[in-house]
Design goal:
With 247 residues, this protein is α/β, with parallel strands linked by helices. The chain has a single domain (8-239), classed as NAD(P)-binding Rossmann-like Domain (Rossmann fold, 3-Layer(aba) Sandwich), CATH 3.40.50. It contains 7 helices and 7 strands; from the N terminus they run βαβαβαβαβαβααβ. It has helices at 17-28, 40-50, 64-76, 100-121, 147-167, 197-207, 216-229; strands at 8-11, 32-37, 54-58, 80-85, 125-134, 173-179, 237-240. α1 links the parallel β1 (8-11) and β2. α1 (17-28) crosses α7 (216-229) and α3 packs parallel to α4 (100-121). The model has no long low-confidence stretch (mean pLDDT 94).
Length: 247
């Protein structure tokens, strides 16, 4: 029997990176985990890697109909103990280059989708359960070419506080984990030209006081700590950024 036996988790964006690492750790300790993502192929690969306790569900967090399908699956499982609101997209684009469509896409996935994921699933979170948002160091740092992305992540930090207040009567805690640069596929999807990626990686590394990228497993452990062990903590944000936001 693992420490998460008889527990159910929902991890949005659970097919790669931080979401996959968290799902793998949770299932490895006996829990059942629903992972969502937009790619059926990626989800099937992730489920095969996680093992039989993984339940893959193709769902776009920016589509309310997909969130409703997730709710239906959670009802079949009898509710959820841990909701990791992790799905997100990142694009680097200078202020003058941000289009209405790209702005809307980022805010719809990262903020609006997160909002309604919690709204729709909150009634099905067991008493004593928890929600953890995946925010980012960019919600407190003013990096260039990341204005829209940073705004969406700052919105999540605000939601962690307000939802923590609203869900207190149901004994559901809400917190956030705030990663810095992490070795995940999202780094390759930020719109950085291929020839500039090595330089960008070096620049990120130099900015981090610990002089390295973090690993998905390091964020996963922090998210699960907030989800299960930090029983007297709500409305907080835990940085996992090598000191970038603190030093």
């Amino acid at each position: 029997m693992g420490r998460y036996s008889n527990k159910v988790a929902v991890i949005t964006g659970g097919s790669t990176g931080i979401g996959l690492a968290t799902a793998r750790h949770f299932a490895g300790e006996g829990g059942t985990v629903v992972i969502t993502g937009r790619s059926a192929n990626s989800l099937q690969r992730a489920a095969a890697e996680i093992g039989p306790q993984a339940i893959p569900l193709v769902a776009d967090t920016a589509k309310l109909a997909d969130i409703e399908r997730l709710v239906a699956r959670v009802k079949e499982l009898g509710g959820v103990d841990f909701l990791f609101v992790n799905a997100g997209i990142a694009r680097m684009s200078a202020l003058e280059s941000v289009s209405e469509d790209s702005y809307d896409e980022g805010l719809n996935v990262n903020a609006m989708g997160a909002y309604f994921t919690v709204q729709k699933l909150a009634p099905h979170i067991h008493e004593g359960g928890s929600v953890v948002f995946n925010t980012s160091v960019v919600n407190v740092k003013g990096f260039p070419a990341m204005s829209a992305y940073s705004a969406s992540k700052a919105a999540l930090r605000s939601l962690a506080r307000t939802f923590a207040t609203e869900l207190l009567p149901r004994k559901v805690r809400v917190n956030a984990v705030s990663p810095g640069p992490i070795e995940t596929p999202i780094f390759d999807k930020m719109g950085i030209p291929e020839q500039a990626k090595a330089d960008a990686a070096r620049q990120f590394t130099e900015m981090v006081p610990m002089k390295r990228f973090g690993r998905p497993e390091e964020v996963a452990r922090a998210a699960l700590y907030l989800g299960f062990d930090a029983t007297f903590t709500t409305g907080a944000e835990l940085p996992v950024d090598g000191g970038l936001s603190q030093l």
